[in-house]
Amino acid sequence: MIDRQLLPRIEHLLSQSPAVALLGPRQVGKTTLAQALGARHSPSVMLDLERDSDRAAIAQPELFLPQHRQALVVLDEVQLVPDLFRALRPEIDADRRPGRFLLLGSASGDLLRQSSESLAGRVAYAELTPLLASEVVSDLTSLQALWLRGGYPLSHLASSDEASFEWRQNFVHTFLQQDLPSMGVRVPAETLRRFWVMLAHLQGQLFNASQLAQALGGIAHTTIARYLDTLVDALVVRRLEPHWVNVGKRLVKSPKVYVRDSGLVHALLGLATVRDLQGHPVAGASWEGFVVEQVAAALPAGAQLSFYRTAAGAELDLVVELGTRKFGIEIKFSAAPKPTKGFWQALSDLKIERAWVVAPVERRYPLAPGVEVVPVQALQGLAEQLQSGG
C-alpha cells in the first residue's frame, strides 16, 4: 500500500471529533485507506452501503449502532442512505467519544449538505485526492508517469500506459453510466460526456456557460451551470474562483475550470502516451491543472485558493491566503521557467509575501528575492513550512 499523506490528518481528526467525513471521487482509494485505519483502531466494523447485505445490517440503526459503541464504525458511500444521518445524531449525542464514525462519500455536495444539516458540530471533514507527487514521485521520469496516467491508484499502478489508458476510459464510462445515476443525477450520460470532453479541451480556461451552451446545441446557460455543479460535486472537476481585492483595476470575474485528474484529461482527449501528449495544445494546460491539484492537496485546513487576473495583463496562477498572509504560485511547463511581466505586476498589486514558480525541475533554486523555482514534489514541504510560520 502507498503511504498516503492524508493519513496522519485523519488520525488527528478522529482523535478530536466523534465523526470524520472522508470525501473523495470514486476509485481514489478511500476504502483502502479506511481499511488501514480500521486495522489501527480495534475493534472496527466496516459497512459498504452499496451492498444490499450491509444496508440490511444497518436498516435499524437505533439497534445496530449502540451495539458497536466501542468500535470505529466505517460507513462507505454513506450519501446513498441519507436517512442514516438523522440516526447518527442521537447516537453521537449519547456517546460523544472521539473516533466513533468514519463516513466515506463520493459526492461532496450531497454529503456536505446531509451531514451539515444533521451533524453540525459533530463531524470534521477531509478530502482524499488522487495520488500526489509527494507520495509517489522520486525523479522526473516518475513525475512524467504520474502526470500522464493521473493519480487514481489503479491507473497509476497499471502494467503499461496502454492498460492505464484503458482503465481510465472504462472509469469514465462507468462513472457516467452508473455512478452518477446512483447519486441521483438524471442527465443523459452522453450529454455529460460531451460536456466533460469540452471542459478537457478548455482545461484551465475561464468558464463561459453561454459559449458551452451553444456548443451543446443551444441549451440554456443555466443548464450548463447545473452540469458543472454536478461534476464539481462529484469531485472530478474544480471550479477555481478569481481573487477579489480592491486594487483599483478591472478584474476578471469568471472562474477557471479544471478537470481535476490529469489522467482523466488525457483519457477524455484520447491521449494514451507521452508521445500523444507531446506537442498537443492541451499539454501546458494539463500540466497547470496537475499542479493546481498538488497545491490544493498540500495546503492546510482553512487556506484559501484563487487566481488573479486583470484586464491590463497582470496575472498569477494561484493566490494562497493563510489568514492575513498572501503567497503566490506561478505554474510553468518548462525546465527553465521565466515568469512574464504580468507575474511581477501581480506580486506588486497583491503585496505577495513570497512566491514560487512550480516547474518540472529536479531541484529548487532562487529566481529573485522572495521568489523561488521549485519542483512539484516539494510543495508539501513548502506548505508545512508556511503553516509553521516559516
From TrEMBL:
Domain (AAA): residue spans on this chain: 17-136
Record-annotated DUF4143 domain positions: 177-333
Signal peptide: none
Gene3D superfamilies per the UniProt record, alphabetical: P-loop containing nucleotide triphosphate hydrolases (3.40.50.300)
PANTHER family linked to this entry: CONSERVED PROTEIN, DUF4143 DOMAIN-CONTAINING PROTEIN
Name of this protein: ATPase
Native organism: Caldimonas caldifontis
